[in-house]
Amino acid sequence: MACRCCEAALKRNGVQTSNIAKLTSRRSFSSGTRYLKNGGLPIFGETSSPELDSVLSTLRYKVFLPNAHLNQQQRKLVFREKYRSQLETQPVKVTIGDEEVELVHMDQLNLPNTWDLTKRVFALLSKEKQAKDWHNVLPNLMHGFQGVRFGLSPARMEKMVRTANSAEMQDVVMKCLQQVKTTNLSLKWPGIRYEVLWGIHAAAQNGGTEPWGEQETKQAIGWMKQVAIQLESRIHGGGFLNDSHDPRASPAVIGLLLELYAARASQHMGGVDMEGKVRIYAERLMDVLPRWRDDYFADAPHEGQKLVFQVILYQALNLAQRVLGADMPQAEAATKRRKSLGDLIQKQLNTNMMEVKPQYCVMRMKETWEKRIQKK
Q1: Cβ–Cβ under 8 Å, residues 217 and 263
Q2: Angle at 366 between CA 363 and CA 370, to 5 degrees
Q3: Cβ pair 25, 97 in contact under 8 A
Q4: How far is it, in rounded angstroms, from Cα 370 to Cα 173?
Q5: Beta carbons within 10 angstroms of residue 370's beta carbon
Q6: Cα 126 to chain center, whole Å?
Q7: Which of 11, 172, 193, 335 counts the highest number of beta carbons within 10 A?
Q8: How wide is the angle at C-alpha 224 spanned by C-alphas 223 and 225, nearest 5°?
Q9: What span, in angstroms and rounded, lies between the C-alpha atoms of 108 and 62?
Q10: Which of 229-238, 268-277, 327-336 has the lowest mean pLDDT?
Q11: How far is CA 187 from the centre of its chain?
């Protein structure tokens, strides 16, 4: 409810209080379906960069607040020039969740570009390289975009995951996946799923002082277990899917699990499948590959992502055969598929790949393949 002094001041200025009362009504966030769904404003703790703090504050008050938390009447009060003087002389406050926020006038034609601000946030996070900043910012940033008009598309969330992976912040990505109800970061979108899987692979192969470090590989396996569980839930695209492109039975997911378990057995268990996991996932992979025919990664939205996972699948089969030897399930078929993949990868590397998009995937593939050659 608008304060009485506010009504009196508006009446003296000849403004109809019956209309203004609607605009200045103090509304609890929990009183409307839209507001309950979006939750309160994200709370960003202080970061290691004053500039980053400033950009986050701008996003909070000039993007998230008006676009996700104010009702239509309150938006009119904030954006319309005729109410500017009233806001300056008689402050109006609204309750958002547990927080009371004072409304200020905003020029709707000169608001900052949302995506430019977001890109600046990631540039500063990458520059500072502080894990605590990533944990503080990324989940809250994604939460803030909930309900924002023209907010985060799956393609933009995919870019966020990619940037976090490049900064070796895969643990923050996994945190956001766990908090999917507030971050909206879901594995149901193929582009995001492939970026998450790549990040897990990269953490194991490239995250330590040498490829497939013991702790890094163990951690990556833990993340993949989490992904496997999440893919069973509807919110991450699971449920009763049974079509040929069910992500739970995809070569990308099963192939990465096999690669990780085979790498650990090869590098840290004396080349022995002590847990039996290598054989289990080798059997599953050889069972699902025929369903996808020769297009093992048909659900990948980018051609470059397909190239990257061709290398991962090759490594998975190669390492599994080294560990299992004669016990490799469908050994002859596995050898045939591995050689076919190797020829395909080498052929692609020998051709002009500048037209393959996105190019960062091509660089990933080249780096991973070259490391495989060095380890042979």
Answers
A1: yes
A2: 145
A3: no
A4: 27
A5: 12
A6: 16
A7: 193
A8: 90
A9: 10
A10: 229-238
A11: 8
| Rounded CA separation 53/216 (Å) | 32
CA 317 from chain centre, in angstroms, equals 28
176/227 Cα distance (integer angstroms)? 12
What residues pair up with 102 in beta bridges, in sequence order?
93
Quickly list H helices, the chain: 4-12, 17-23, 33-38, 50-59, 72-79, 84-89, 114-128, 131-144, 154-166, 170-178, 180-183, 190-206, 214-230, 251-268, 277-288, 303-324, 331-349, 359-375
- With a CB cutoff of 8 Å and minimum separation 6, the contacts of 15 are 86
Q: Are 313 and 305 in contact (CB under 8 A)?
A: no
The one-letter code for the residue type at 172 is V
Q: Which two tokens stand for residue 134?
A: 């990533």
pTM here? Answer: 0.86
**Gap between the Cα atoms of 177 and 175, Å rounded:** 5
Nearest to 340 by CA among 305, 286, 294: 294
Output b/e per residue, 67-103; b: 16+ Cβ within 10 A. Answer: bbbbbebbbebbbeeebbebbeebebebbbbeeebeb
- Residue entry with tokens 């103090």: 26
CA distance 294 to 203: 28
- In this prediction, residue 361 carries a pLDDT of 74
**pLDDT of 354 above 80:** no
- Classify burial at 267, counting beta carbons within 10 Å of its beta carbon; exposed 0-12, middle 13-18, buried 19 or more: middle
What separation in angstroms does the CA of 269 have from each of 242, 265, 272, 282, 323? 36, 5, 6, 17, 10
CA dist 91 and 95 (Å) reads: 13
Q: Which of 129, 138, 128, 121 is nearest to 52 (CA)?
A: 121
Q: Higher pLDDT residue, 253 or 349?
A: 253
